[in-house]
Amino acid sequence: MAEGRGIEAAAHKSLEDFDPQRKPKSSKFAFACAILASMTSILLGYDIGVMSGAVIYIKRDLKLSDVQIEILVGIINLHSLVGSCLAGRTSDWIGRRYTIVLAGGIFFTGALLMGFSPNYSFLMFARFIAGIGIGYALMIAPVYTAEVSPASSRGFLTSFPEVFINGGILLGYISNYGFSKLSLSLGWRLMLGIGAVPSVILAVGVLAMPESPRWLVMKGRLGEATKVLNRTSDSKEEAQLRLAEIKAAAGIPESCTDDVVHITKNSHGGGGSGGEVWKELFLHPTPAVRHILIAALGIHFFQQASGIDAVVLYSPTIFRKAGIESDTEQLLATVAVGFCKTFFILVATFLLDRVGRRPLLLTSVGGMVISLFTLAASLTVIDHANHGKVMWAVGLSIATVLSYVATFSIGAGPIAWVYSSEIFPLRLRAQGAAVGVVVNRVTSGVISMTFLSLSNKITIGGAFFLFGGIATCGWIFFYILLPETQGKTLEEMEGSFGKIFGVKSSAKSVGNDNGGIQLAN
């Protein structure tokens, strides 16, 4: 009963009582959970990084065309859609933690198969397997981290997946350089096959993680959820507030303090059919849910459509166009891109909960726009030079590639994952995050599978002018449609959305007919 009174009291407090400026740092336990969950993102990062250099040698060894290389590099993004589409229901069924284990196991298989590939067809099959694992990892890491994090440091902790993607990219670049000295047929196979190692470490480490408290509440396991919340909150009082809000979102009465609660099929806790969730997302959304969906899909689209994968995957090609001729120098320059990208994503993790999502995102995309247009102009000058190298344009091209990945990493990179994982209501979170990953991967696949052909058609400078125009549209979209979410609990989030659709939502109530959280005055 005492616990019930504590939860009821906490439920009447506001978020201001948990101001991150006045509260201690999040627990080391929440930090450790976020680290372990986010390690799944190394899988995608390593594949992106390693393929940028491996394709130089794959093309020579297997005698492939530019179109075959484009398909080989980009197809994994489309394969990952299978994993992303399955991950939402899988994580609701077996839990967030075991979905992470599944992601690691699938990628492990794919990486080994890539390392032993005898020909192009087998390599394509192996990338299909690895892509499914990447799809699972991309969806589940930010969802788990957001659900286990206290509000005061959720931005910091939820940015970890992007940190590990960048760490994986850097490892891939280093692997390229390290194995480039080996024989042609062995070097690229080791580059790809060694990617199985992180997935083994992940499978072992995840055994130390607890299950997501929100998933436990969805399954009616309140006692276990309470223990996890007590260990991952800044204070016991905040843990009681978080539990009360999760219970409200799941349709469980505040007065219920039983360790195990039976949640019926029609409950708001996520026990309903997947069809009901998809209907609420796409067919009959509330104005707030519609706004959330548009924001989540838009931020994922513009993150990729601005050309980041073209730069990361084809860095050696870009540097060759800029005038760097030897393979070794191209790979070394690419390693510099990896270090720059990783450094600035680390800077971003410390700014997300201090500066806020919106100002950091707008600053980041503004910097990307300037970098892209400058890179496009310098590459165009180099392309039209009649006599020798234009050294200032070569230097400017290299500098703007670095400034582009830096400005991307300090905002657009991590915020897309942080933002889309925290804005969906509990009932819609797994499927909503999965849809965001689908948009992200489809856009990435289109960019990576067309960049070489696009560059041949409109020149490489023209391709980056196009990316700069898309990034400009993205800045306008973010300015108009993305409200600030810093410091809000996940259960309060819906109140920030829907206003531009004619709905004023500020006070919280639960239990709407659509099965989500309805916030209205």
Features:
521 residues, single chain, Growth Hormone, Chain: A, disordered C terminus, mainly alpha
Report what the structure shows:
This protein has 521 residues and is mainly α. The chain has one domain: Growth Hormone, Chain: A (Up-down Bundle), CATH 1.20.1250.20. It is built from 21 helices and no strands. The protein has helices at residues 2-11, 28-38, 41-62, 66-94, 96-115, 120-148, 154-158, 160-179, 184-193, 196-205, 213-218, 222-232, 236-250, 274-283, 287-305, 308-313, 315-321, 327-355, 357-383, 391-422, 429-481.
Are there runs of 5+ residues with pLDDT below 50, and where?
1-26, 264-272, 503-521
What is the terminal-to-terminal distance? 32 Å
CATH class: Mainly Alpha
Label the structural class.
mainly alpha
* Share in β-strands: under 5%
CATH fold-level name:
Growth Hormone, Chain: A
Shape: globular
Largest sheet: none
The count of helical stretches stands at: 21
* Range of helix content: over 70%
In short:
With 521 residues, the protein is an all-alpha fold. 73% of the residues lie in helices and 0% in strands. The longest helix is centred in the C-terminal third of the chain and has 53 residues, at 429-481.
Task: Set down the secondary structure blueprint.
Layout: H1 2-11, H2 28-38, H3 41-62, H4 66-94, H5 96-115, H6 120-148, H7 154-158, H8 160-179, H9 184-193, H10 196-205, H11 213-218, H12 222-232, H13 236-250, H14 274-283, H15 287-305, H16 308-313, H17 315-321, H18 327-355, H19 357-383, H20 391-422, H21 429-481
